[in-house]
Amino acid sequence: MAGAPTLIGSVQRALHLLDAVGASERPATAKFLARALGLPLPTTYHLLRTLVHEGYLRKLDDGYVLGNRVDALGQRNTVQAVVSRARPALQSLRDELRGATYLSLYQDGEIKLIDVADGPSMPSVDLWVGVHEVGHATAFGKCILSCLDKPGRDDYLSRYKLADLTPHTVTDPRVLEQRLRLNRGVVADREEYLLGTACVAAPVRAPGLIGAVAISAPVRRYPALMADPGALSRAANRVARAVALRA
């Protein structure tokens, strides 16, 4: 029978302090926190100084409040919650279509790849160029750009050159804009990012969020991926529902 877990008392006390500060409707003083948690006042001061130094708390004239590091954790946890809820759909799609799958989001004006589900026989694409700057050449990038309005696309494309990654990459802004406007549903990249590789993506739309689910495979499988896009669309819809539940 496994023994009880080893717990670090100082860590527990620091976490309880964070909880108490976060639960308080006004800045919490050291004396108030010491009484509330049953801690010696010197110990409370030591823990508070450490948490302030690390950015998890801020010291104001009338007490302590949560710091910027806690806010940053909350923002990261939003993405982690999306990843956690979307992962089963990505894995199911990977196994069904036998290819590495990807989840990307549009955040703060950038295209961000936030999760990949691959395997030994279904390796992910060698991302030799940062995907955030080549939205014009990836299936999930084009899928996201096609979901934006014209000002949104113009903003993104004004910040990133249409790099010529392969002989198949579209680098003419007018041609790219025409294709993005015409895109509906599934979007493809046929050796536009990497020779020998094809990728197909479907949009993920949820309140306050734009993203894409994609699958990559050797280019010889491109016709099969495009012949039946239903599995990809269903996976994108499952991710959208999961994100909506999280919201």
Automatic annotation (TrEMBL):
Q: Where do the TM regions start and end?
A: none
Q: By its UniProt entry, which SUPFAM superfamilies does this protein fall under?
A: GAF domain-like, Winged helix' DNA-binding domain
IclR-ED domain boundaries: 69-247
Q: Origin, by domain of life?
A: Bacteria
Name the UniProt key words of this record, in alphabetical order.
DNA-binding, Transcription, Transcription regulation
Question: Gene3D superfamilies from the entry?
Answer: 3.30.450.40, Winged helix-like DNA-binding domain superfamily/Winged helix DNA-binding domain
Matching entries from PANTHER family are given as: HELIX-TURN-HELIX TRANSCRIPTIONAL REGULATOR, ICLR FAMILY (PTHR30136), HTH-TYPE TRANSCRIPTIONAL REPRESSOR ALLR (PTHR30136:SF24)
Name recorded for this polypeptide:
IclR family transcriptional regulator C-terminal domain-containing protein
Organism encoding this protein: Amycolatopsis dongchuanensis
* Lineage start: Bacteria, Bacillati, Actinomycetota, Actinomycetes, Pseudonocardiales
